[in-house]
Amino acid sequence: MLSCAPMQTESANVASSHAAAAASVAISDIEMRTVRLPLHEPFETSFGRIDSRLIFLVSVTGEGLTGWGEVVAAEEPRYSYETVATAQHVIRDFLAPAMLSRPVNDLADLAARFNAFRGHNMAKAGLELAYLDLLAKMKKKSLSDLIGGTRADVPVGVSLGIQPSLDQLLERVDRYLAQGYQRIKLKIKPGWDVDVVREVRQRHPHIMLSVDANSAYTLADESTFRALDDFGLIMIEQPLDHDDLLDHAKLQAELNTSICLDESITSANRARHALELGSCRLINIKIGRVGGYSQALAIHNLCYSRNVPVWCGGMLESGIGRAHNIALASLPGFTLPGDISASSRYFARDLIVPEVEVAPDGTVRVPTDSGLGFTVDLDYIKSRTQDFERVGSTA
Length: 395
Ligand code: OSB
Ligand code: MG
Description:
This protein is an alpha/beta fold and about 400 residues long. It contains 14 helices and 15 strands. The strands form four sheets. It has a seven-stranded parallel β-sheet with strand order 5-6-7-8-9-10-11. Strand 9 (about 260), helix 9 and strand 10 (about 280-285) form a beta-alpha-beta unit. Helix 1 (about 85-100) packs across helix 3 (about 120-140) and helix 2 (about 105-115) packs antiparallel against helix 3. Residues about 1-20 have low confidence and may be disordered. The structure holds 2-succinylbenzoate and magnesium ion (MG). 2-succinylbenzoate binds near residues 212, 315, 316, 339 and 341.
């Protein structure tokens, strides 16, 4: 079973039967690499600004095949407490030994081993991703097929960072709409919110528009939320504290606009709590934030069974993480456009071939080749690798 134990009773059983006949895999090697990729332009959110991404890749080898995953932690603990360095430590010293200790029966077996260690979801997810790519390659299936995906292409949107000026933001909104993106998400923070959203809305009365606060507000900002509530936004993403559910429930009760939780949803159990408390009406699923495919599938199944729409969030991943996001977003419950943009929106050159492209209708094609469905560009990765570390089953 691909879905994990805690949510089985809630599960709509989507994505569970497909890998039922899982083959046991003996992993012989786990490799960790960091690769710095400059961003085309700086990305600014309520918690800061970055102009490059330190991409943390993990690969696992077994049965003569290699599977690839990405750890989405950042260099600084702002979006999450994890960092690239904490994830390297946790993988090297705890997760890799657990994965290498004996053959992995299936995803639930791997998740149960990782569950013995608290937290560090992004580190766990990186290895789950690599394992599932390897498993899909063994079974000669696409990742989407393996997890029960039903879409041949997925609708996508773009997440626009806080800009130096309103004009620069408006220019970017126009640019990405012209490229076909189906939804525009604006990063907001106090001082860059109501006036900015009003301008974008006036110019584009009918587009799917949302905002993402990355926890920059409190319940005391009621007047801001009341103003935002009048713009016909499809959602307000994570307005309050990163680990809050209660105040979000109070706020959701006051708003017409749906609240979408990102940071606050760290597991399937947290998702269930949020839905039962009324903290949100939508959930952004990021495989890294929730600790891997096992929990991401459980959250999807829970929401699907309750008719709660979900969408796939992004962490400025390289093509390797993005390919996993595309597979996840092919599940039936992913009805809203994901933060799955073209490679060229982030980087001059991506780590996969071909790069991810957005079609003029604002969709990304779900690959049908086995595993990730993209070729990992190992020569390019090697040319940009900063740190390399190998953990083997034989010391
Ligand atoms: O809150 O969704 C977020 C990027 C890094 C950290 C957090 C977030 C984001 C994004 C970008 O919004 C999404 C993407 O295009 O990858
Ligand atoms: Mg977000």
